[in-house]
Predict the 3D structure of the following.
Amino acid sequence: MRNLVMVVSYDGSAYSGFQVQPKDTTVQGKLEEAVRVLTGEQVKIHGSGRTDAGVHAREQVIHFHTESQIPVQRWRLAMNARLPSDIVVKSVREAPLDFHSRRSAKRKTYRYTIQRTRYADVFTRHLAFFHPTPLDLEAMRQALVLFEGEHDFSSFCSTRRPDGSHVRTIYETAFDFRPEPDAGDGDAGVIHIYMTGNGFLHNMVRIIIGTLIEVGEGKRPSSDMPAILAAMDRKKAGPTAMAHGLMLWKVEY
Amino acid sequence: MRNLVMVVSYDGSAYSGFQVQPKDTTVQGKLEEAVRVLTGEQVKIHGSGRTDAGVHAREQVIHFHTESQIPVQRWRLAMNARLPSDIVVKSVREAPLDFHSRRSAKRKTYRYTIQRTRYADVFTRHLAFFHPTPLDLEAMRQALVLFEGEHDFSSFCSTRRPDGSHVRTIYETAFDFRPEPDAGDGDAGVIHIYMTGNGFLHNMVRIIIGTLIEVGEGKRPSSDMPAILAAMDRKKAGPTAMAHGLMLWKVEY
């Protein structure tokens, strides 16, 4: 028995999320199918985390146990030949049997992309949330850093589990604004927001982003963030931002 | 009667090209439909040139005559509200009635994108021709510049018209290579090839690119280009490169 670890990238547009669900097309399902076609084995693939329907991954990490004797250096091409064009295996390594893509993960980084321009870019429309009206970028920056550190993120979680902890640590955030040349208005451009943490609750990044967008629109002051966290009440935060702007950026072990 | 000129961008993936064809979905058809829904008029839209099935446009220029009294500054949003998400109007202006998007054009620039990496980027796979094996970039650069100037491009044209001239002028070319960080091999990265000319024959850019790729693969020396041009024979040139790597970049008047 071997434990194979793969870094995979996918355009989530066509999928009902990462995790296998009856009747739905999922990334996990496509990966398991590729392994089955390649080796004849029905393996169970584990990801570092589930991504929701429409969410992308630059570097998702998966692992699975296999009896296959195919050498590790052959797997990347063999998998890519059997995967649809919106999923790609970037690298493959063998790990000790106790390595687990989710449980062994130390840090995860997500990126959310907002396109703040007069018209949507047709070539990246599947990767960015289009926001044609002005945003107060400085207020958004100020609000973002208030999420750093250890907090109870109950207000930023769509499905609370009564038995589970909602405490997570955000180690760092980054607000990367790339202005559009010749746009005229100073806030026009593409915004990439990065969050790195020890784990994320269901929809946590998207609810934080939905709240930051309300800050950018002037509907809330950035100084409200601590009170929203302290309320531990989903209704106090903003809406869940659309899935297609979100990308699992990297996972560190 | 007014003459409206629009700069439009489209992801050509879903279209049977720019020009209206019976039974096929085309960019021109979608634009004419948007005008019809907006004004009730059945206008005839003219583009600066036809782009083939699957070819994209960053800045295609179109014009049409209309009786509509809608102010020019209202058209962009009104059109974009009625267009599918893969076509966008970037700007609108009014021009003298004798302005013609194709006949008045002075220079056109096309860009072709080749992704020379070990695996395809799932997020830009609709915009780049994926070439996983090595390419001799220096030989491709040398071959590209040999197309500059005035030439008979009969060897680089898929449909010769017995009555028409096949002489065109390429004013300038550019070879923009963006290396992939940490890739290991020196030629790994994304290649953007730009060609600016007074006009382009059918499939001319794609046949030049197909020939350059053969040069990059070591199948032909770059020094063969003058002889291929001189032969005025389509069979002497390389294959027609795939449509999805091609983008109409800009049109100058």
